Each structure stands twice: as C-alpha cells, then as structure tokens.
Amino acid sequence: MNGYEGRQLSSWMRSVIVLRDLVEVILLDCDDCEELPPLGKLPHLKKLEVSGMKNVKWIDGETYEGVEEKAFPSLEKLSVENLPNLERLLRDEGVEMLPRLSQLNIFGVSNLKFPRLPSVEILLTRSIDEVTSFMEGVVGNMTCLKTLDIQIIDGAVVLPDQLSGLGALQDLRVGYWDDLEYFPEHVLEGLTSLRNLDIHFCKKLKSLSEGVGHLARLESLSIRYCPELMDLPSNMSQLTTLWKVSIAGGSTLPDGLERVPSLRSLYIWSCKCASLPDWLGDITSLQELSIVNCWELRSLPSSIQRLTNLSSLSIRNCPHLEKRCKRESGEDWQYINHIPRLGLHFQMKPSFSGFF
Length: 356
What we know:
By secondary structure, this protein is mainly beta. It is built from 5 helices and 16 strands.
C-alpha cells in the first residue's frame, strides 16, 4: 500500500480474518495515517516493511491476552524507515514478540526503545541521531547479533564504547560517519568474533588504533575513501587470519599492509597515486593482486618481481600501465612475466561496477 491519505484504515484492513494469510506487507508513505493494521496477530507474516508514516508511535497497537499468545509469531524480516515518532514496536510490551525475527532494518528512526530480540542476527541502520543510546539498546537486547551495518552518523568522533559488548559480531560495516576520527582500542578488544571489517567514506578517520591486533579472527578488511588514514597499526603482524584486503580512493596504500603475514588477496581501487610503494614486494604471501581504475598510476614497483607466490595479476582501467605492461616490450614486463595469470584490460571511460 503506497500513498494512502486517510488517517484511519478501512474496516477490512483492521480485520485479522481478512488478512490472516498474508506473508508479506509493505506500507509506504501514508503520511497522515495514525494506525497500522493488526499485523502482530497475523500468524504467517514473514516480511514487513513500514516507511514514511510520521504519526505512527508503534508498529502494533493491539492488546494481547494470555501467556500463549505471541506478537509477530512468524516474522523474519522487519524494516522501519522514516518513522520520526516511533517509540516502540508494540504498545503492549508485556507479551512475547518476534520470536523468529532474524533481520531488522532501521532507517531514520531516533526514539525507538528496543525490546529483547535475541534471535536477531542482522541489523542494518542509517541516520541515527543518538548513536550512543541507540547502541546501548542494541547491545542489551540483541545478544546473537552477527552482522551490524551502521551508516550516516554525525557527531561521533570515536566508535561508541557499547560496540565492545557485541562478542558474537562477525561482520561490521561502518560508513559515512562524517566526524569519526578514531577506533578506540578497548572497543575493538571486545569484538572477539569479528571476521569482516568494512570502513568506507569516513573522511576524517585518522587511526584504527592498536586495538586491531585484538581481532584474532579477522579475515577481510576493506578501507574505502578514508583519505586521512595513511598508516595502519604497527601490530598488523598479529592478524594471522587476515587474507583479504581492499583499498579504495586513497592517495596511496596505507603503510602497514606489508606486515600482514597471511595476506593472499589485495584489491586496489580508484587510488590517486602515481606509483605504488616499494614495500609491496615484501608481501611474499600474496597470491592475487587486482588494480582497478587507478588512472594516475604510471608504473609498477620493481619489487613486484619478488612476489614469487603471486599467481594472478589483474589490471583494469589504468591507462598509463597499458604501454608499460605490454607483453615482451613494456618497461614493466620484466617485473610481471613470472605471473601465470595476467589480465590487462583498458578502456577510455571509468567503470564503477560493483567491484567490492
């Protein structure tokens, strides 16, 4: 239902009998609507999306009686977006709710009080005003959370302390935090299960701190468009399970990558540098190297010939390297002719297809 202009719903929309077989409900931009259908009482509802309702204070305003009755008994995915006055998921929070909910998306909702949601494993959130209090509700009520994607946050200079309580978290994506400068060590120390860390468009980020060394299970690190981050922590050598790194949009590769002992795949995307550092040849564990859309890159370091384990090199849309890497006659050919799989692709216009 999109764009309904009434304040009250029609009687049939408030009938559990009429709606009882619904599996998916999407309610969009019903600006004046003050209530929602009795969605919590629908036994088969698995997916619910509610967006653009400024007057809604709770998702389910129904009354529940008896200990056996549960609200949203089958719901697996819930998305709420642009509900500025949303206070609670249920008006009657004395009842057990959302026993099967696995994914929660919250965009542009600031005052929501979280109930206990122990089955939620994926939380995607955008545009949260009070990120500290928001994270307090998350940590206290989502004990099994494995994926947290939190973006478009203003005012936070450091990652909130509450993040350290997410001991089950495996994937953390932090993006578009305009004021973020620092990852405190004690916060990272608590992320003992983290396997994937993705940081992007944090334009003031300067340091990841020595806390990175506590991420003993980290497998993948992605740093994209964080121009102030020039150096990685000195203890990168402790990341013995880190095998994949993606770097995009920087003026150079951040120092410290060469200390990662198990790095096998390195992706370099849209970097503005004219040359790559000589220490690239010190990453002797490297097996796959991809360089894409680096339009200013003019040569490869001679040290690349020391990468005897490198089995795949892909260069795409780096026009200055076309001549230098030309088979047999290119000036850099002598550095790469030992690599079994070479992919050299060039075109006139940048391609921004989904690389990561």
